[in-house]
What does this fold into?
Amino acid sequence: MSIKKLIKTRWSIESDRITIYPYGWYFVLSVILALIFIGFFIAIAVLEPHSFGTATPFLIPLLLFSLVLFFASGYTHVVFDNNNFKMTKRWLGFVPVVTKSFDQLHGVNVMRQATGGFNFRIYPRDDKFGKGVAISSYYSKETHPNCVAFTNEVIPLIHRYLDMNSPLPEQKEIITAYQYFTESNGIYTYKQRNITFVIFFIACLALGIHECTPYAFSLYKGDAVRIAMIAGPFLFAAIFLNGMFMKIIFDTKNRMVEKSSPARFGNLKMPFEYFQNFHMIRKTTNGAYSGTEVHMIFHEPGAKNTKSIMIRQVQNTKKIDRLVEEIKSIMR
It folds into this structure.
């Protein structure tokens, strides 16, 4: 079996059951680790034969266990069973680590990475924008044949299962007071969080001024470092200053969304009618969750690509829900 076949998403569909195998890349990773371990042992045996003899009894069982665990992780799968109305993730193929009834699930959505890749995940109702459970491998583009097949064959069937067992819809709150917008004559202006921009603007400006004084950190450095230490902070100060005066407005009279800034970088103006959907991009810093970016996606008729306006990076599901509902209320 080729590497491409190993790392792509596999699935089987029965009469009332979907089984998905999204972790095939563990098979490839275990082979790579095995080669690394073999190379490590060969190097130790050649360079340090005495150390090799004493360390082998302890290292080999540990490394073999690690390899077996990595390889077995490739058999981890997610089952949607319409007989008992439950989704179960089974680690190593048999250890149930996540179990949710269908009425606890919100649906399948895309998890996009800052690097551009994405995968499909199933999200619970109480954490619709959280980490979710991965049900596909990562894709670099929507036109990947495995992605297209998964989108056409598996996702609609999962949603059909969920729809058959979904609870009664909750009554939506009628929004009269807005948390994220101010209103004046039918124009809703997004409330920017300027304090962060102000802090970084002052810090960068102070550093740039400091580098122009006789006490500069780069005073005795090379010309390239000196120029970078002076120009860099002023450049970033300008970027943060531009962010301080960036505005996002929703003009309900003319039915237009506009993002504008003094530098005119990233400015965009779109009619409400071109709005397609919201995209949520989950952000991580050093592996730790740092927030979810809320983007509005627009498609102009005849254009090849969509255009995006990032509204805000939000930390929790309730705040994301509130922001999205406020935007929907404004654009009605």
